[in-house]
Amino acid sequence: MSRAIRWIFVAVSLLLWVAVGLAAFEFYERWQEGFRAQAAVAAVQQARIAQQPELDAIATEFAGAPPETGADFQAREGFVARDEPAREDYADTRGEAVFLLDSNATVIRAYVPSEPGSVAAFAAPIGTGTQVDAQLDAETAPDFRSAVQLVRDGVGTQLRDYPVQLPGGGEEVLQFAFEPLEQEGTPVIGVFVRLSTWQKLWVDFRPNVHQDDAYDFQTNAQGWRDDPVVLPKPEGLYRIVCIGGSTTAEGPTNALTYPNMLENLLAERWGEGRVEVINAGVYASNAGVEAGRLQQYLALEPDLVIHYNIVNDLTLILPDGLEQGRAGWQRGLAASHTVYNHWNTLLLPSDAYLEQGLRDTVFPSFDVLTQGFRDAGVQFAFASFGAPGYSELDATQQAYFDHVINTMQWGRVMNMASYVHVVGIYNGMLEQYCREQNLLFLPVAGEIAGGAELYTDICHMNLFGMKRKAEAFRDALEPVLQEALQP
Q1: Domain annotation for the chain: domains and CATH numbers
Q2: Which of 117, 163, 196, 279 gives the lowest tally of CB atoms within 10 Å of its CB?
Q3: How buried is 215 (Cβ within 10 angstroms: 0-12 exposed, 13-18 middle, 19+ buried)?
Q4: Nearest partner of 211 among 200, 227, 198, 229, judged by Cα
């Protein structure tokens, strides 16, 4: 055998061994990642149980006592224990339609509120032997059936909000609560239908609504999750309006949201009643929706408006924009769980590409808000967006947050290292934008970086995190309020 052939043989053998080794390593990574995620979730859950006394203390500090939520859940759980007149009274008193379904999702009993209205109009055609989802459109009916299946599989209570066409004309957003129940020893599924907290799904909350499911949710006359707003604004009151998505609106009760915590902290600093903070956050909001609410924000007569959001805009950019921006070699590597799990930032498009995506999709709406507030003489501020401090976390917490982001609705698009990188790009662009537009920039993100002791997922927080966020805003606003409130 010639020397050249021997070298070719050796090279091919080495390549084969390398390929076998990489395949084995990939197999091991795929096998191991599930165990890693399960262990991480269990460890975080255990840590959160230990953290509960501290969370209760924060709730007591800002709301007087730990929150007691879930009254609506409790009322539904006791429904089948009622006799027939009491069930009918439940429907009338609460304004809810109730359908008991058998294992085939067929209605075995229906209870419809006697008071005319959207719920009664929707429920009227649904009787024994019919299917509730027959009254839903082609888009929502499959999700209804999926929710029924989840309850049947033992996953637990499911909540859905659907826009429905009413038999008499018009559209209404209704909430459907799917509850696992038992009637005379037989499992049944209770579907409780009432007006949704949404007036327009994913856009506006319904005014003057109060529901208490997983959390106690109340809106005022303007449809914001806060106390009544006095208009015209009282003389001498400095009013701050916080806008954004669920990371602004979130909290187990209205009092336990970051804007309301901030108001309490500012009262300690400046005196009771001098500064009011209004929570104008609405779940799922993105920059375009926020720009469309400009007049609603101005109607509150604010002195200062603070914007805190980006995660919902990222769901519009991802995953299609990410895939389109990747080079061919990145698409190939993306199939590897080893690369995805450990070197995920290699799979990101260039920073320039990501910046352009944000510039095209987000900042035009920021221009609308900036100009609108400027024309109205209202000071406008942007806050940097917080995220878990991934690089500073231990391996267990990194695995936890990677599991969380990989199981979101967009699927395995990026891990937490890449998400934090993208948020960092946004925060840098936002600071530059504020300099160019002569806007106030509030660098709160650096004060709320942390792990599962603060964050419940990639962006939402527990009470400890929200308190820290409120404190970060208090400190960042100190120079502004010094100028506005001191004679």
Answers
A1: 72-199 (3.30.450.20), 227-485 (3.40.50.1110)
A2: 117
A3: middle
A4: 198
